[in-house]
Amino acid sequence: MASPNVLSLAQAISFPLSGKTVRNRVYRTALSEYSGSYDENNIENCGKPLPRYIELHKEMAAGGAGLICFGNIPVHRDHMENINNAILDPNNAWNAVDAFRPAIAAAMSQGAICLPQLTFPGRQVPDYVNKHPKSASDVQLGPSMDKTYGQPTPLSRDEIKDLVNRFAWAAHTVVKAGADGIVLHAAHGYGFNQFLSPETNKRTDEYGGSLENRARFLLEVVAAIKANLPVAKYVIGVKLNCHDFSEGGTSFAEQCVVLKWLEDAGVDFFDVSGGTYATPAWRGNIQKELTDRPIQRYYGSYFIEWAQEMKKVLSRAVIGTTGGWRDAHRMAEAVREGKIDMCGLGRPLRENPFFVSEILEGKVRTSNL
Ligand SMILES: Cc1cc2nc3c(=O)[nH]c(=O)nc-3n(C[C@H](O)[C@H](O)[C@H](O)COP(=O)(O)O)c2cc1C
């Protein structure tokens, strides 16, 4: 029985296309687990899920979140987001379905639905991991997040096609391993975001220029996934920035258009975030632009102001936002008022994996963070 102040968070919600039901309104957003094998001298030995990967998700399942997203899973082993990523690459020597099945089963063991996050990091990979990243264009990321980054090479059309096929293969693989669908990482300045942003996409072919062209890669991936997975059964989710908080980056107006295109293409779930490595708004440390805003002061959420507007653009998909939620009563209020459908949690569940069940039972109200 949920505590009266958080009743709205305890309500189930269904994804309209897939029909999947989430038992409550709180999800564990994607958070890199860094629990895959790593061998700096041999790519063949990188990316196999380790026992810790299973343990983490077992713990997360017991904590009560209705939906559990896995963190970054690169779809190309030459393009890791960081060392120790679990990787889904058709060239890996092991059976990918068998390798991912135990962690997915662990995440789903207490009734949560599970959406692993698929990623192409593009230029946003530290140079100690990859000195030769590929991106939409050759725009290098300056030092940020205490790291330095290599000069990227623009992806050729064939390489884009290969990536599209890899995303489709990876999505199919995790579903065969038991997952309820996938989430694409199109936020935080990673690969899809680099295509969407005029700051990092200087292409002159059909993948650059107009918004339609900059969104093409992401939409092609959604279409390819959909061709393999019936959306009437599986969830396609997208983590999307409300905007990049940088001059020349993705704008709120354009992201709203992309959001609608994605919904029309079959996306059933959006996790709204913001910022890139150069402007890491998702960490909540862009003081002037975020923490001073009255709505953020009240709810804690960094992006509620934009997510609530994005919800109005949608006609069907479920939308949540992650970043800054620390007070269960404020989370419940935002859901009760219909500002958003769900609330995503990252660091609070690292600090206390049982935060969701504790807030629903009324044992705690705020995260210790
Ligand atoms: C250690 C760490 C790893 C993260 N890994 C991912 C990731 O794999 N994918 C992703 O979309 N966001 C990732 N994020 C961002 C979080 O999902 C989330 O957007 C951010 O932590 C803000 O939410 P919070 O205030 O609830 O922590 C990561 C954040 C941290 C701190």
TrEMBL record:
Q: Which UniProt keywords apply?
A: Flavoprotein, FMN, Oxidoreductase
**Where is each NADH:flavin oxidoreductase/NADH oxidase N-terminal domain found?**
20-362
Which protein family is named in the record?
Answer: Belongs to the NADH:flavin oxidoreductase/NADH oxidase family.
State the name under which the record lists this protein: NADH:flavin oxidoreductase/NADH oxidase N-terminal domain-containing protein
Report the InterPro entries cross-referenced here: Aldolase_TIM, NADH_flavin_oxidoreductase, OxRdtase_FMN_N
Q: Which organism is it from?
A: Aspergillus pseudoustus
What are the boundaries of the region Disordered? 133-152
Source domain of life is Eukaryota
User: What Gene3D superfamilies has UniProt attached to this entry?
Assistant: Aldolase class I (3.20.20.70)
Q: Which Pfam families does the UniProt entry name for this protein?
A: Oxidored_FMN
